[in-house]
Specification:
Blueprint: E1 10-16, H1 20-31, E2 38-45, H2 51-58, E3 63-67, H3 73-83, E4 88-92, E5 96-98, H4 102-112, E6 117-126, E7 129-135, E8 138-140, E9 146-148, E10 162-164, E11 171-175, H5 176-182, H6 194-204, E12 208-219, H7 228-246, H8 249-254, H9 256-270, H10 273-285, H11 287-300, H12 305-311, H13 321-328
Parallel strand pairs: 1-2, 1-4, 2-3, 6-12
Antiparallel strand pairs: 4-11, 5-12, 6-7, 6-11, 8-9, 10-12
Helix pairs in contact: 7-10, 7-11
Length: 330
């Protein structure tokens, strides 16, 4: 990696919270990159498992920023991004092992892409089963559901460079100028759907995202150990926020039945009614802030409603309620 005083081409931002057991695989993977003009910024969220001491001793090339508390993904990576002085910014989850050509593939693609390509998605493979895809770029539906493209399919699939809705922020590359124009991640989200939200805001500004199949990363998934109840609360609140903040009124009305069904679906499937309700209440309390964000976003929007409508898919991407009910009575 880059040890020069000069400005690095890429800053790799890694959020960390009590995940020392994943650090060696992730940081060794970065040491083994064929592309070396980068710096690593690890932002620690008040870990109590000696993560900081481990990195300081074994990986002195890593710049470590320590926070006193766990602020969640969005505020954490924003802290790292603000410290980055690079042309590109890569985000990498700690529970990943980047393959040797990962960063080189992303940088080469971004270097040859037009300026409207603001971000790139990696080919994320299941850590314990590299023959299976974890994520090949994310989709977003008119039900309000985000989906990992290719999840569970054979790794030999999805081998073409193609446009996707947005990258999974667990292994992605962004132009620094893109991050500045969209305003970074929305820290109100804390964690979950913040990458979909930023991808959608980028889309509204006319940016595109490309999937790079040669940029491979092994990924454990859920390596940070968020509780189920916290997950349901944040997903419920953030999904509603994402939709109201970014989607024009005309399209919200046109797809209102599908959107309402999506919220009802997740309320039932999550099986955590109290935490779903708490997430909804938190969304309602934040309405003045969300509506103010909406006014700014919609004022800056450059894509037509017709173009935006085609960017979201019409598949829920989840088992149907009928199939779920049937499985209960087998």
């Amino acid at each position: 990696m880059n040890t020069r005083i000069s400005r690095p081409k890429v800053a790799v931002i890694i959020p960390n919270w009590n995940t020392q057991h994943w650090l060696a695989g992730c940081l060794d993977g970065l040491r083994n990159q064929t592309f070396q003009d980068f710096q690593i910024i690890l932002v620690d969220n008040g870990s109590t498992d000696d993560s900081v001491a481990f990195v300081t001793e074994h990986y002195p090339e890593v710049k470590v920023i320590v926070s006193a508390e766990n602020k969640g993904f969005a505020p954490t990576v924003n802290t790292g991004i603000r410290q980055a002085d690079s042309e590109y910014v890569a985000l990498l989850n700690v529970d990943t092992i980047p393959q040797p050509d990962w960063l080189n593939s992303l940088v080469e693609m971004m270097d040859q892409s037009p300026a409207d390509v603001g971000c790139l998605a990696s080919k994320m493979l299941v850590l314990n089963n590299p023959g299976s895809i974890d994520d090949a770029g994310d989709t977003f539906s008119w039900y309000g559901s985000a989906r990992k493209r290719g999840l569970g399919e054979l790794a030999e699939n999805y081998c073409q460079i193609e446009e996707v809705f947005s990258p999974c922020a667990g292994a992605a590359l962004y132009r620094h100028t893109f991050l500045e124009e969209v305003g970074g991640f929305d820290e109100h989200f804390i964690s979950y759907l913040e990458d979909i939200d930023m991808g959608l805001r980028g889309r509204l500004l006319g940016y595109r995202c490309l999937y790079v199949p040669t940029a491979k990363v092994l990924h454990q998934g859920q390596g940070a150990g968020t509780s189920r109840t916290r997950y349901v609360y944040l997903m419920t609140r953030n999904r509603l926020t994402l939709l109201l903040k970014n989607i024009p009124w005309q399209l919200l009305l046109k797809h209102s039945y599908t959107l309402l069904f999506g919220q009802f679906y997740f309320f039932l499937v999550y099986k955590k009614p109290f935490h779903s309700l708490a997430g909804t209440i938190s969304f309602l309390v934040a309405l003045p802030h969300i509506l103010n964000q909406r006014r700014i976003i919609q004022k800056c929007k450059v894509v037509s409603n017709q173009a935006l409508e085609t960017m979201l898919i019409y598949e829920l991407g989840e088992p149907s309620l009928r199939d779920i009910i049937k499985s209960k009575f087998r």
